[in-house]
Specification:
Distance between the termini: 73 Å
Number of helices: 27
Largest sheet: 6 strands, mixed
Shape: globular
Number of strands: 15
């Protein structure tokens, strides 16, 4: 009997067909995709399962970001009462994946168990397993009764068409992933979803939820009011895209979220050409904007079609999706695919900007040197802007090359502010972070708070804001944010490292040490010295090691002066710590810490600290 028919997992009974668990906490249900992940882990119990394996087996041909798997693992741990720090069910294997460590045995028909056997196949999301009968989900039903849904929805519109609900001064909206009804080799649904988010995000009259945060609802069985409550929005857009021979059609519904009432539902059709795709997108955007009384930018109203080549467009959509995953392999694949798209249509700005962004990210994540990637990234960004001077993504990449090649912070901020005026959602993250880095912590926190409202399920945004709150001395808020980041992305080493710093400052040294140990296990290879320095500093503060301990000496003799400064503060040697910081070749995070981190408060009373900050400002091209 296969595991998909049911299996025991320690004290739990798992019923994959029903998306249901029974155990110490009673009966609980989980998302169908999370059950697919658990089933795959169970079929490989005791083995490390890589992210790539999940991608090819569980998601198969669907390209998703790492956040999808992180969310599934997080949900499983919550429902099983497990934790990443002290796992009893799912263990994070640094740089390898996840492993199910609890025993697994299939459930026989009579309820008895026998030795585990392997099973194949994942739960069918189109069957309501708990009731044992077919059902039509809110979104998958579009594939069966597309026209019927439209008729019913339009009937609802006739009833409420004159009813305009009260909205806030800035309406908030989430565009759920569009169902892809196929068939066809062109990623119509993904491309349409990306473009709707991009173009809606250009309006300052709307708060648009980011792709990262809405993607988790791709296969959800949650109701519209539940989704809206989780995202904090008052409007939802959902729909489906279908290729029909040489044409396509798009069903779109605008829903007043709290009441779960359709404002309207409309069917758009066109020939399967790039101009028709963009024309339909523009029509949908205008319909949504008109309904919500949102003003679009003049550039978006009057923009020409970005390309007339459907092949180049398809390649660009696939490359964007790959780039969102942020692994080295997918970033390199994306860069190559963007290059091919630009070769097919040299007048298309998006693949040029996309490849520029991929090259920049390969450097930012430590996979390439600045010299190997950033000059080329700048050239591509400038070429994209020559084709489309409103291209916000190209401006962001151009700004970051000024930062990392010339250390020109003023020029970087000027370009980012231009990009932010054109498309806030593209530029806000970097702008908020670098405004704080340059010395305006309050402004940076304000913008990052706005970013969090638009990306409520993005681990990196939670972590970034936690760092800024830590620097501002708001330790309780910083701790809550970094814990949420780790919950959203189990194994997020930077979150554990920041959490340890907060706990250390709160005097919870033993707990801080455990967090630093966890960070040291999971942290990327490019930053082991920082994790080791914080761990050593905490052990010194807790009295676990003496100042002459071997590990202390190794850090003090190390080549990197910033970890040395961290440990010197723990040793109560502020003068030596300032001397170490004067030798730092600062990056953005080290700059924030040097300016604001409470750990360095003992240095700020010294007269040589002001000289240190003047030197830091000159490093970034700011007037001292």
């Amino acid at each position: 009997m296969h595991l998909k028919d049911g299996f025991n997992l320690g004290q739990w009974r798992v019923y994959p067909d029903a998306n249901r668990l029974e155990g110490p906490a009673g009966e609980v249900t989980i998302n169908a995709r999370s059950m697919d992940v658990l089933l795959h882990l169970a079929e490989h119990s005791g083995e490390a399962v890589s992210r790539q394996d999940f991608s090819t087996t569980v998601w198969q041909d669907t390209v998703v970001t790492d956040d999808a798997l992180n969310w599934c693992i997080s949900e499983l741990r919550r429902k099983l009462g497990d934790s990443a720090a002290d796992p009893h069910f799912i263990e994070t294997i640094p740089k390898r994946g996840y492993r199910l460590i609890e025993s697994v045995a299939p459930i026989e028909a009579d309820g008895a168990s026998c030795a585990a056997t392997s099973g194949t196949g994942a739960a069918d999301p189109d069957v309501d397993r708990g009731r044992g009968r077919p059902y039509v989900s809110r979104r998958r039903g579009l594939s069966i009764t597309l026209f019927a849904v439209l008729v019913v929805a339009m009937a609802a519109v006739l009833v409420i068409r004159d009813r305009v609900p009260e909205t806030s001064s800035t309406p908030s909206i989430a565009v759920l992933p569009l169902a892809d009804l196929g068939p066809g080799d062109i990623p119509l649904a993904e491309g349409m979803h990306q473009d709707l988010l991009t173009r809606l995000g250009q309006s300052r009259d709307l708060r648009v939820i980011s792709a990262t945060s809405v993607r988790r609802y791709r296969d959800t069985d949650k109701s519209i009011p539940e989704i809206a409550a989780e995202l904090g929005v008052n409007w939802i857009v959902e729909g489906a895209v279908q290729q029909l021979g040489d044409g396509f059609q798009v069903n779109v519904q605008l829903i007043e979220a709290q009441a779960d009432l359709h404002r309207w539902a409309r069917l758009y059709r066109g020939d399967l050409t790039a101009p028709d795709l963009f024309a339909v997108q523009k029509e949908i955007i205008n319909d949504i904007a008109d309904s919500l009384r949102a003003e679009l930018t003049s550039s978006d109203k009057n923009s020409a079609f970005p390309t007339e080549n459907l092949t180049a467009y398809s390649m660009t959509v696939r490359a964007r999706t790959l780039l969102q995953q942020r692994s080295e392999s997918t970033m390199r694949q994306a860069a190559s695919l963007f290059e091919r798209a630009a070769g097919v249509d040299p007048s298309y700005a998006d693949p040029l900007a996309g490849r520029a962004n991929a090259l920049f990210l390969l450097h930012y994540y430590g996979h390439e040197t600045a010299e190997a990637t950033l000059p080329r990234a700048r050239e591509l960004a400038e070429r994209a802007l020559a084709l489309d001077d409103h291209h916000a993504r190209a401006r962001v990449v151009l700004a970051m090359t000024h930062l990392y090649l010339e250390r020109d912070m003023p020029r970087t901020l000027d370009i980012l502010r231009d990009a932010h005026r054109q498309q806030p959602e593209v530029a806000r993250g970097w702008l908020s972070w670098l405004e704080a880095t340059s010395g305006d912590l309050e402004r940076g926190m304000q913008r990052m708070d706005e970013q969090l409202q638009s990306a409520p399920f993005a681990p990196s945004v939670h972590w970034s804001l936690s760092v800024l709150k830590l620097c501002a001395g708001d330790l309780d808020r910083a701790l809550a944010l970094t814990e949420r980041a780790a919950e959203l992305s189990p194994g997020y080493g930077a979150a554990y490292l920041t959490e340890g710093q907060i706990l250390l400052l709160q005097g919870k040294r033993d707990t801080a040490i455990r967090r630093f140990e966890l960070a040291l296990e999971d942290f990327p290879d490019t930053e082991p010295e920082a994790a080791a320095a914080w761990l050593t500093a905490a052990e010194i503060a807790a009295g676990r090691i003496a100042p002459d301990d071997r590990r202390v000496e190794e850090i003090l003799q190390g080549a990197d002066p910033f970890p040395r400064a961290i440990v010197l503060v723990a040793l109560d040697r502020p003068g030596d710590a300032i001397e170490a910081l004067e030798r730092v070749e600062w990056d953005d995070l080290q700059t924030l810490y040097t300016r604001y981190h409470p750990w360095f408060d003992p240095l700020r009373q010294r007269p040589d600290y002001s000289a240190l900050i003047d030197k830091l400002d000159r490093w970034w091209g700011q007037a001292g």
